[in-house]
Design goal:
Four copies of one chain form a homotetramer. With 369 residues, the first copy, chain A, is α/β, with parallel strands linked by helices. Helices cover 40% and strands 18% of the residues of chain A. The longest helix of chain A has 23 residues, at 281-303. Chains A and B meet through helix 2, helix 4 and helix 11 of A and helix 2, helix 4 and helix 11 of B.
Chain lengths: 369, 369, 369, 369
Amino acid sequence: MNQDTNKPQSTGGAGEICHLESDYNNGAHEAVLRHLIETNAERTQSYGDDRFSDQARQLIREACQAPEAQIWFLAGGTQTNATIIDCALQPYEGVLCADTAHINVHESGAVEFTGHKVIALPSHDGKLDADELRAWLDAYFADETAEHMVRPGMVYITFPTELGTLYSADELRTLHDICSAYGLLLYVDGARLAYGLAASSDVTLPLLSRLTDIFYIGGTKCGALCGEAVVFPKGNAPSHMLSRIKRHGALLAKSRVVGVQFQALFQPLGGVTHGEPAPTLYQTIGRQAVDLALRLRRLFVDRLGYTPYIDSPTNQQFYIIPNADLAALRRHIGFEVWCPVDATRTACRFVTSWATTEQDIAALEQLYT
Amino acid sequence: MNQDTNKPQSTGGAGEICHLESDYNNGAHEAVLRHLIETNAERTQSYGDDRFSDQARQLIREACQAPEAQIWFLAGGTQTNATIIDCALQPYEGVLCADTAHINVHESGAVEFTGHKVIALPSHDGKLDADELRAWLDAYFADETAEHMVRPGMVYITFPTELGTLYSADELRTLHDICSAYGLLLYVDGARLAYGLAASSDVTLPLLSRLTDIFYIGGTKCGALCGEAVVFPKGNAPSHMLSRIKRHGALLAKSRVVGVQFQALFQPLGGVTHGEPAPTLYQTIGRQAVDLALRLRRLFVDRLGYTPYIDSPTNQQFYIIPNADLAALRRHIGFEVWCPVDATRTACRFVTSWATTEQDIAALEQLYT
Amino acid sequence: MNQDTNKPQSTGGAGEICHLESDYNNGAHEAVLRHLIETNAERTQSYGDDRFSDQARQLIREACQAPEAQIWFLAGGTQTNATIIDCALQPYEGVLCADTAHINVHESGAVEFTGHKVIALPSHDGKLDADELRAWLDAYFADETAEHMVRPGMVYITFPTELGTLYSADELRTLHDICSAYGLLLYVDGARLAYGLAASSDVTLPLLSRLTDIFYIGGTKCGALCGEAVVFPKGNAPSHMLSRIKRHGALLAKSRVVGVQFQALFQPLGGVTHGEPAPTLYQTIGRQAVDLALRLRRLFVDRLGYTPYIDSPTNQQFYIIPNADLAALRRHIGFEVWCPVDATRTACRFVTSWATTEQDIAALEQLYT
Amino acid sequence: MNQDTNKPQSTGGAGEICHLESDYNNGAHEAVLRHLIETNAERTQSYGDDRFSDQARQLIREACQAPEAQIWFLAGGTQTNATIIDCALQPYEGVLCADTAHINVHESGAVEFTGHKVIALPSHDGKLDADELRAWLDAYFADETAEHMVRPGMVYITFPTELGTLYSADELRTLHDICSAYGLLLYVDGARLAYGLAASSDVTLPLLSRLTDIFYIGGTKCGALCGEAVVFPKGNAPSHMLSRIKRHGALLAKSRVVGVQFQALFQPLGGVTHGEPAPTLYQTIGRQAVDLALRLRRLFVDRLGYTPYIDSPTNQQFYIIPNADLAALRRHIGFEVWCPVDATRTACRFVTSWATTEQDIAALEQLYT
């Protein structure tokens, strides 16, 4: 394989744009692509029974320290959310989330298409407030007309959130306890999980596996061409998942296409050293993107003097940019306008990813020295 | 790229099995995979707006001689059927098909999940009979209680059918005329379209584009890792297709993953010679698999004396095998038991694909000389 | 109440038409209407909690000898079928029925609207054949691709069928045993149950309660203005039925409107004599309509020499009428053309109901002496 | 008919409770019941084709001065909302409403069951604010990701609202203009329409017919046993409504049961005097309940000194009651606790209806002189 054609094109050269628009504009991480090539000639079973999917499942179980985990591979994030929420809920149940949640805003009503209400609570920088959640649940269960209202069956959170923020382990524990107390499932949308895990000081896959009922490990935004891995960490998947998934149109005939990619993402890299398990590609991808995001942060805050719009520790960074600076910035950086802040300033989003290189950021640093 | 690792493993060696179980057990055709590699480093737009998808659409429009065609790329066959049928039908309409149709048998009720009845008519070797269809429609529209019954809105056919058979151009014209007369859409499931087109003497993409309202060009079973291309040949797609598709969970963020593959499949190969348009990879794939299926047919019928169970001109071949022969056959060929014929004989299915090689079949021929 | 305005108008006078078109063209049975009047001024709870519904439930439990039965009142038959089938099935399950079944033919796809496949087996005069059912189930559960097919979750039968025929107690027992063996629910659509019970020699409400999982007692066609009573005889209703029913739009605020009517229908009439429980209005209604149907049968077969099209013992009678006779017959009888039999004869349906009077039939008898 | 048994029981006697809990705890208005009795013996067509439904439609068209209006009779309010919203929207569209709207709170997710998102905006005493609505729509249509969000297809309002408040004619005109400008339907849930029209100074059925696309005239809470009349005032009903309604389980076989009641409700009473059209029973019912609600208001505010919780001009009245007074009040009045106001006071709801009598309120006035 030609390294030159397969490496994400460096954007750090003079006059080049450093692309920070989003984390799904590149192809696949080189190692993921290479594994697709290496395994291509092998014949396999289909519909999830292929050996690559099996091996990927085993690697994920190990990474999660969840030997009982059941794992399903789906093609994309909205598909995963709609399919899994519908499969896990009773027909008369709805799903609670922050009003900024992806399922509430940006999935064209895919959850409602399956017949379930999305019940939005206030968002605090993308996060649910545990006290507000508890108060809402208390009010619901105290209401004499509760049976005429949609029963809450699940709490949906994103990790990291749509605004790049994170729940701490303590916050997750509190949500877990609330869900247990009220009989709800806790489900984590991990479209950008690699970046969340890398940025968090205390949330890990094993912790997620203990504290949640279902979560998915995002592939599309974290180095894969496509694919998400849904984890039922306690072997708690509903029965007949294959039928349920196929009925949602979400069962891939050539399941290997996702299995192979997750095998690459969760294969420990290099050798085990000093008793520490070797990091996986998934961890490396997250680590690098977050490190570069933090360098970007220092550049924006310390050197350029911009104020964060939201205090995000992950690969999505949000800064308040004077409108007067926007055009100049655009000459060197590709980014997304988030929303106007006031008449003279705009909040903008800058996203690093597995495809962002050290050179990309170094070039920017040099530019703004 | 290492040819040795990427070429489908030859199964023709002594003692090796020639795998004819199905056409979705291999990875991608080498040229498709190569194009994924070549394009990997390029940044693109997402959600269908990437330039690879655009170029693939243009190539398909040309192959179809349908400059107005609207084309959407989805991930898999069941997803495509359920999404497109739901999008094209009015809510109160159902879809007519042969009782052997994939949507009626093997999609876990994905069409019904979207709220539409699948109305099954008798299958004749996998095909609808035009007279029976017309009689059914006459009876429906003459029925005073028709409004209490599910209104037919679409005729669904597979090309080739689940049994490997084909509609002729004349038969398609008749179905088209019936659909026009009764105000129904004609939709063709082309999961194995490459093989159908190669085997047909008179059905082509331009003809399909003229005679049908919607059809999909199957990628998963015809050389791609995943992906199907839905064609609305007359620019007749319903409005807001992006929302509709996303609502079904069928919109890929990295749409390029399918776009790139179809670009490879529909790129004309070699140079134009003698005024004839150069064949596409999609045509070559179909041609080779059908040629090998016909060699297999000569071997089974002429040399081994087996009777066809269904007279299929395409890549799915069905023969009646004496039970006494099954074990011996299995030592050299991988195949699928279809159904018992009587106490001593079994119908079996043998499927060639883009991954079947000339050497595979030659080795079998040598074995049974 | 003025008897003259409230009694169904006799059709037996000279020159009058005896209306046998269907059993839902009249208002309510006089006693049902009277009970609506008597109870009108009383204030009650709503949404099923009113005392009339409670009393009706208790009367039905007694009539069924099913003290654990849970009972829900809905407004109409299609609503009941779609709501109950959806509530009782798992999302990935479908419902088996005869191809003539109401849910398969005449409910505008209401069951499919809720996401479930209706799986039609051959109809034998409206009935399922137990051996064919067992064979279908054996084939399904033996199929390696079963998870890709809609899983059967319920057997739906009508009693009496759409063609007026009945299952015997033995036949019901066989269906019950099959359903138990394969883990399916047995559900009986009793839109015309009063007439079926009256005509059957051995099927009773207690027997239905023992042999089935769910059935509904039809009100609309059996003397009520509207309303059907769904019975879960073993206290086996799914949880949160109020929410489930409301979600289907099927929860009546003034639930009393159906409760009062079923209280009237199931109130034992007169005094208990000789230890026999007094019949209910529901039984009387069934008895009378079936007796008149049998008199009609003697008239048609013995006196007029017509051949039954289907051998129905219930209130729906089907005869083969020479086309030459149709016009003359229409001068005295209102009926429905069912279907042509051949070039010179037509099958016609004649339906008695609670609103058919002894005088109606006597007048016909006199006419054709 | 015996007046004594059919008149709502007076609650004004010494020691009796004046029942103001809700407006659906009684049977039917005497005149509605009487018409059911009068018409009971007549045979009619079914499924909406009966002559009573036809006549009721004509009366409603006249009351609405909407000769082109198409009218459908359904059984209840939640059923009507879910069925009509689903029928009128495109599959990918959602419905905008105040967050207090019945469809958002108290219908067990019936709208979402049909696949559509309910998009809640802030409620201002139960009403939408036109400026907020316009701002939301501007933001939606300006959003580059709009196609990934649920497209607004309808504005749903209640008249009167769940809190008893009313939109003025000017406010309706503004909503109409906004809906026209943005291509949305304006739909009015008139579960309590009789009371709203009686209380409004300028909103009438003809005005509603001009300014809205769809509205329903509530029967269940306004004098009928059951039933709502859906009006498409400009003949703008979607095609195949019978099939659409039946598919939702909402088509009554004995459609007369609702038709007869609406015929009674919309039959002009007495003779035309001085060129004024005679009022209908529906108007009389609304007028009386609102007059009594206003007398109640004077009693509560002027004599008892309670503060309104919400300023409602309709039959639902809300007052802030010191907790110390609750027990004493309950000895004479049946009412519903709405919500706590603070540690010592509670908001309570008092509802008059067609069944509330002048004597009921007079007795209360005497009690609190």
